[in-house]
Amino acid sequence: MVRTQPSQMPEENQSGQEELIEATPQPTPLPKIQLAILLLVQMPEQLSASVIYPFVNQLVRSTGITGKDERKTGYYAGLIESLYYAVEAVVVLQWGRVSDHVGRKPVILVGLFGVALSMVSFGLSREFWMIILSRCAQGALNGNIGVVKCNMTEITDASNMAQAFAWLPLAWASGFTLGFLIGGVLSDPADKWPYSFGRYHIFHRYPYFLPCMVAASVSAACWLIALLFLKESTRGTASVSHSDDTTKSEMHAVNIQDKPATDTPTDMPPHMLDDAEIANPAASSLGSTRSDFRSILIPRVIIPVMHYGLLCFVDQCMLVLMPLMYSTSRPLGGLGFSSNTIGLVMSAWSMLNGTIQVYAFPRLLRRFGPKRLYITSFAFFLIAFATYPVMGYMAKRQMEAGIWLILCVQLVAYLVAYSTYSCIILYINNGAPSKDLLGATNGLAQTLASMMRAAGPTAVSSLFALSLENDLAGGTAVYWIMCTITILVLGFSTYLPKSLT
Q1: Where are the domains of the chain?
Q2: What's the distance, CA 31 to chain centroid?
C-alpha cells in the first residue's frame, strides 16, 4: 500500500494567506472595568427622572395647589415633569463643552453630587414652588448623559465602539426600572409600615422623602465609586492642556471620523433612548462647525428627524398618562391605584421591555424591514391609548378582572410600540450625508426630541385636566385626541424610505 502524503499548500500561497490573516484587524478588547463604571454612573440619571412618577400626582394634591379639586392635578404634575426635560435640554450641550476643558471625570462627579442633592431637596419639599425648584435643579445637573457618551467614545475605537454602546440602553432600562420600583414601594412608608417607619415623625411630615433619599443614596454610592475607580480618559485630559482649536480638531477626529456608520447597533434595545439617544455634545457642535450645516437639511435627514420628534412627543404623553390615569379616583374615570401598585406595574413593564427588545428587535427588523416595522409598531400606540377609556369604564363598574386584562393588553401594546425607537434611530444615522455630518445630524435630532419631550407632559396633562373639568367626551377626550395624533403621524410615516440604503 502506498501511503499518500497530504497535499501541501504552495509556499507563496501559504505566505500570502499568513500575511492576510495578520493584516485582518482584530477587535480591541473592551475596557470592561471602566465601561462598567461608566454604565453605573449613568444609571442614577434615569433613576432620578423616573422615581417620582408613581407618586407625583399624590404629591401635587398634598401641596394644596389644586384647591382639593382632583381634576386639576394634571396641570401641575405635567409642569413638574416637563421642566426636568426642558432644563436638561438647555444645559446638556454646555456640560459637554465644560468637559472638553476640565475633563470628563470632574463633570461626572459634579453631576452625580448635584443629582443626589436635588433628590434630597425634592423629598423634603412640601410647597409647590420648592418642588419646581428641586426638579429644575435635577434637570440642570443631569448633564452626564452626554458626557458619559463622550467618555465611552474615548475609551473605545472603531472596532469595539458598537459593542460598548450596546450596553448603554440596558443601564437606562435598569435606572427606570429601579426608579419606578423605589418610587412606588417606598412612598408614604409611615402609612404602609406604621410599626417601623411610622415611629419616626419625618416620614409622617415628608411621606415621599424615603424614595427620594434612596435614589440620592444610589447616586452618592456611584459618586464614590467614580471618585475612587473612574480614570480620566487620555484623550479627554489631553484636551485640557491644548487650545480650543486643537481641542476641536482632536475631538472631531475621535468622535466623528473614528465612528462606525452608526452609533446605535441594530440589536441595541431602544428602551428609554429617554432621551435615550442623546448625541455626543462635542460631536454635535463640531459637526456643524467643520461642515456646512445646511448639508443635512435634506429630505432623508429631515423626515426621520421630524418622526423622531413626533415619536418622542407621543411616547412622553403615554408615559405621563400612565401614572396620571392610574392614580385618578374611579368616579372620575381613573383606576384609583396606590403609588405602590403604580410603581410595581411600571417597573415590571420597564424590565420586560428592556429585556425583550434586545432579542426581538433584530429579528423583527430582518423579517419586516425598517419602514414596515416602524409603521406597524407605531400603530400599537392606538391600542395603548384606546385602552384607557375602556379601563375607566370597567373601573366605574367594579369589573376588576376586566381591568387587569385590558391593562395587560395596554402594556403589551406599549412594549411593541417601543420598537419604533430603534427603527427611527437607524434612519437618522443612515440618513447623514457623510460621517463628518453624523454628529450634526444627531444633534439636530436630539434638539427636536428634547423640545418635544418637554412639551409632551404639559400638553397631555393639561388635556387630561380639561377633559375632566369640562366633562369632554365623558372625561375621555384626551385619549381620543392622542389617538388622532397617532393616526396623523402614521399617515406621515409613508414618506419614510423603504430601506436604510
Answers
A1: 31-232+246-495
A2: 24
Coil, strand, or helix at residue 8? coil
C-alpha span between 160 and 265 (Å, rounded): 11
Looking at CATH, the fold of the domain delimited by 31-232+246-495 is given as Growth Hormone; Chain: A; (1.20.1250)
Q: What's phi and psi for 470, nearest 5 deg?
A: -105, 5
Residue found by looking up cell 419586516 in the block: 368
Tell me the C-alpha distance between 45 and 50, whole Å.
9
Would you say 268 and 276 are in contact if contact means Cβ atoms under 8 Å apart? no
Cβ-contact 119, 139 below 8 angstroms: no
How many other β-carbons are positioned within 10 Å of the β-carbon of residue 397? 10
| Concatenated DSSP letters of 156-203 | --TTTHHHHHTTHHHHHHHHHHHHHHHHHHSSSHHHH-TTTGGGSHHH
Taking a C-beta distance cutoff of 8 angstroms, is the pair 223, 138 a contact? Answer: no
Task: Give helix 299-327 / helix 73-102 axis angle, nearest 10°.
Answer: 130
Instruction: State pLDDT tens for residues 202-222.
Output: 999 999 999 999 999 999 999
Burial of 1 (0-12, 13-18, 19+ CB in 10 A): exposed
Find the helix or strand (DSSP H, E) in which 132 lies. Answer: helix 128-141
Spans of the chain below 70 pLDDT? 1-25, 93, 143, 145-146, 158-159, 161-163, 165-166, 168-169, 233-293, 358, 435-443, 500-501
Of 98, 56, 38, give the one whose Cα is nearest residue 324. Answer: 56
Q: How far apart are CA 246 and CA 314, in angstroms?
A: 41
Q: CA–CA separation, 139 vs 49, rounded Å?
A: 9
Helix (H, G, I), strand (E, B) or coil at 140: helix
Q: pLDDT tens across 15-32, in order?
A: 544 444 444 467 778 788
Q: Is 166 exposed, middle or buried (0-12, 13-18, 19+ CB in 10 A)?
A: middle
Buried b (16+ CB within 10 A) or exposed e, 128-148: beebebbbbbbbbbbbbbbbb
pLDDT (tens digit per residue) in 253-288: 334 334 433 344 444 444 444 444 444 444 444 444
> Is 26 within 8 Å of 152 (Cβ atoms)?
no
First to last CA, the chain: 60
The closest of 253, 223, 260 to 235, measured between CA atoms, is 253
Residue with cell 467614545: 153
Buried b (16+ CB within 10 A) or exposed e, 262-275: bbbbbebbbbbbbb
